[in-house]
Amino acid sequence: MDRIRIVGGQRLHGTIPISGAKNATLPLMIAGLLTDETLILENVPRLADVVQLQRILGNHGVDIMIAGKRAGENGDNGRTIHISAKTIVDTTAPYEMVSRMRASFWVIAPLVARMGEAKVSMPGGCAIGTRPVDLLIMALEKLGADIEIEGGYVIARAPKGLRGGEIAFPKVTVGGTHTALMAAALARGTTVIENAAREPEVVDVADCLNKMGANIAGAGTARIVVEGVSRLHGTRHAVLPDRIETGTYAMAVAMTGGDVLLQNARPELLQVALDVLAKAGTTVTPTNEGIRIARNGAGLEPVDVTTAPFPGFPTDLQAQLMALMTRAKGTSHITETIFENRFMHVQELARLGARIQLDGDTATIEGVARLKGAPVMATDLRASVSLVIAGLAAEGETTVNRVYHLDRGFERLEQKLAACGAAIERISE
Ligand code: UD1
Question: Whose CA is nearest to atom 32 of ligand 1?
């Protein structure tokens, strides 16, 4: 199993290209199931989760073609993939596949909308809380699907097609909103989604669906209205930049000091996180090319942050911010409101010398003058990258084990950091 080895203490200088967003790519690929024509996605990141979803879609009969490297293309450009769900040969998504990635459960929506039935295993994914699918099921029921749960599978049936309905989510759910959008796009009549997720990835998916012929208004607000259409067609769509990758590298620069351009990053996708970084003592400068992040030798100020759905501080940057605050000049508080069990990084950060107290959903972080390198274990996607950030500032050597978690969501992480002067390498075994 691969490991990442870091020798801390180097400042970061240079340019880091930001990849296409994983959390938009996955639902966009799934949206390819809605049409028998070809959906072309550009700026697709090279990630293990994308490969896994390719396998899952392949199992339904979807042809996926990855365009070859063109002249002048290097590893920094995202890939272009052609998704063609001309014929769907199987409407079952088996346990062995879905259990490895939670988002793959979302195939249930296009399958039932287009084929009238779907049988999808209950999901797996990062071990960060119970992460149920009750709200996704509720959304499909509101659109007329009959749901049965049997042997760990959710079976959705709508032999005469879905019909529009009112879906009021009791809590904001990104997956629930994606599911509702995809199902409503092909339902008969009007669907109103209340308390919809406002995440930029939802807007990206809605934009792509509209290009495919859907009629969706209000994406990016809490009330989305969908006029169903009878069929969708192919289109070409470029995935938006990854705001979580952007925030992660911004925190790495804040941690080590230095000056880095995050190329292609868009500040409006993570304004709250950038404001937190500025408050902590980082200089954040939007430019034509992206966002420049700089910190000189001055110490980091502590901050108090609570995670929230967009536009609030993202839960997917919580672990990274905690790593950063381990070096602040004082005490910070971070409250996690989205996932109840998302603190697995705390004990690993402690191995590097961090002082963190947990009390329910709040972590109190007492900044320390120095961290010391140690072997640590990646537990989930975002937690593992927080250990990399801590390792970049720790004295001596840190090895992060189980990096397959990192490969699920960060494209060429060690190369991007090494190109800016970090002493980081992958050890393959
Ligand atoms: C997505 C993101 C993930 C991010 C999360 C929150 C992708 C591929 N993943 O995950 O990176 O951390 O949004 O921004 O885009 N819930 C229920 N019942 C449900 C569904 C959700 O109770 O049926 C709860 C969850 O347990 C959680 C909250 O709602 O407490 C938000 O979850 P949700 O927004 O659905 O997360 P995901 O879409 O799985």
Answer: 173
Any atom of ligand 1 within 6 Å of the Cβ of 131: yes
pLDDT (tens digit per residue) in 145-154: 999 999 889 9
The angle at the Cα of 340, spanning 335 to 342, to the nearest 5 degrees, equals 75
Q: What atom in ligand 1 is closest to the CA of residue 178?
A: 38
What pLDDT, in 10s, does the model give residues 333-386? 999 999 887 898 999 999 999 999 999 999 999 999 999 999 998 888 888 999
DSSP 349: H
Confirm if 352 and 390 have CB atoms less than 8 A apart: yes
Q: Is 126 a catalytic residue?
A: yes
- Beta bridge partners, 7, equal 397, 423
Domains of the chain, each with CATH number or no CATH: 3-19+241-427 (3.65.10.10), 22-238 (3.65.10.10)
Residues in the chain: 429
Output DSSP code: residue 103. Answer: G
State which H helix or E strand residue 137 sits in: helix 134-142
Ligand 1 centroid to residue 174 C-alpha, Å: 5
Residues sharing a CB contact under 8 Å with residue 268, sequence separation 6 or more, in sequence order:
none
pTM: 0.96
Considering only CA atoms, which residue is closest to atom 9 of ligand 1? 23
Q: Across the strands, what pairs with 122?
A: none
Q: How far is the CA of 172 from the centre of ligand 1 (A)?
A: 8
- Cα-to-centroid distance, 312 and ligand 1 (Å): 15
Side-chain-side CA neighbours of residue 267 (13 Å): 16
Any ligand 1 atom below 6 A from CB of 316: yes
Spatial CB neighbours of 175, under 8 Å, sequence gap ≥ 6: 102, 103, 105, 106, 133, 136
CA angle in degrees (0–180, nearest 5) for 74-76-79: 80
